[in-house]
Amino acid sequence: QVQLVESGGGLVQAGGSLRLSCAASASGSISGINAMGWYRQAPGNQRELVATITSGGSRNYADSVKGRFTISRDHINTVYLQMNSLKPEDTAVYYCLINRYGVIYWGQGTQVTVSS
């Protein structure tokens, strides 16, 4: 019943920017979201945390993206990831997630490719 739809991925040159969006929906009105966030996974690598944000607005970032990425959300159903100063090392599939009533749900992923 819960679906997360991601958008905003693409191909950019190093130093460029992208903004990812993830909209959550459910049968009826979506509610009960405690936290939202983003993970990423590059080929051959483990899925790693990028950023999270709680319903209270507390944010957490991976050291590798601090100062470059910003996570934000509305208080309805959407989480965003503003990615600036992108590096080739940021190339990965980015997955959004929500914690709703204590249960984790994942998006399908969106590809971000940063060229040298």
Write a structural description:
The chain has 116 residues and is mainly beta. The protein has no helices and eleven strands. The protein has strands at 3-7, 10-13, 18-25, 33-41, 48-54, 59-61, 69-73, 78-83, 92-100, 103-106, 110-115. Strands 2, 4, 5, 6, 9, 10 and 11 form a seven-stranded mixed β-sheet that branches. The chain is globular, with a radius of gyration of 14 Å. The mean pLDDT is 94.
Question: Could you list some keywords that capture this structure?
Answer:
116 residues; mainly beta; 7-stranded mixed beta sheet; 4-stranded antiparallel beta sheet; 11 strands; 0% helix; 57% strand
Helix content range: under 10%
The helix tally amounts to 0
Question: Biggest β-sheet, characterized?
Answer: 7 strands, mixed
Mean of the pLDDT scores? 94
> Could you tell me the number of beta strands?
11
Task: Describe the SSE topology.
Elements: E1 3-7, E2 10-13, E3 18-25, E4 33-41, E5 48-54, E6 59-61, E7 69-73, E8 78-83, E9 92-100, E10 103-106, E11 110-115
Parallel strand pairs: 2-11
Antiparallel strand pairs: 1-3, 3-8, 4-5, 4-9, 5-6, 7-8, 9-10, 9-11
